[in-house]
Amino acid sequence: MKKPLFAVSLVILLCFTFSCQNKAKKAELEKMRTTAATVEQNKTIARQLHEALDSQNVNRLIELLAPGAVIHGAEPQEDVTAENAAQFLGPFYQAFPDLTHSIEDIIAEGDKVVARVLIQATHKGELEGIPPTGNRVKYYQITILQIVDGKIKEGWRITDTLGCLMQLGMELKPREIKK
């Protein structure tokens, strides 16, 4: 009598153990699926940001930003927020009306997305005192975005501004030393 009772108890214990392990594995798998879906969603938001820039759709760009979001540039005056996006981008769009961003690499992990972006445009309007040259420029930008709950919370961009300006005919010269 004890042997069958022991066997039944052992079978129940094994079933319970395997059931718990299966639930833990399922929970882990579900967590991985959720994380992968979030990472893909964040990549999509990064692509949508660049599409909004290409279509000069400042309202769409603002929709992608979380309240209080800032996309930092190299200098504080180059920071883009919902409040200054139109003012910041307007002169650039006038200088480069055919502006395009081509994402060549995009990498995401957690809430961060990094994109290596090829920017191309034709200089058809004045840019910071530089008259239109008609030159076609190609330069790169690295963009890092922090995306939380489907909105860009913060961002950073590193742009090859010197490369762009040199393609517009600007020269880099050492400062003259005044004696």
Total helical segments: 4
Report the β-strand fraction as a percent range: 25-35%
What is the string of SSEs from the N terminus onward? HHEHEEEEH
In the CATH scheme, the class would be: Alpha Beta
Structural class of the helices, strands and pairings? alpha+beta
Spans of at least 5 consecutive residues with low confidence: none
- What would the average pLDDT be, to the nearest integer? 88
Number of domains: 1
The general outline is: elongated
Determine the N-to-C terminus distance.
109 Å
The helix content is 40-55%
* Spatial strand arrangement across the major sheet: 1-5-4-3-2
Indicate the CATH topology: Nuclear Transport Factor 2, Chain: A
| Rg, alpha carbons | 26 Å
Which architecture per CATH? Roll
Number of strands: 5
**Sheet bearing the most strands, described?**
5 strands, mixed
How is this structure best described in words?
By secondary structure, the protein is an alpha+beta fold. It has a single domain, classed as Roll (Nuclear Transport Factor 2, Chain: A). Helices cover 44% and strands 28% of the residues. The chain contains four helices and five strands, in the order ααβαββββα. The chain has helices spanning 2-54, 58-64, 85-95, 161-167, and strands at 65-72, 100-109, 112-122, 136-148, 151-159. Strands 1-5-4-3-2 form a five-stranded mixed β-sheet. Helix 1 packs antiparallel against helix 2. The chain is elongated, with a radius of gyration of 26 Å. It starts with a helix and ends in a 12-residue tail after the last helix. 15% of the residues are buried. The model has no long low-confidence stretch (mean pLDDT 88).
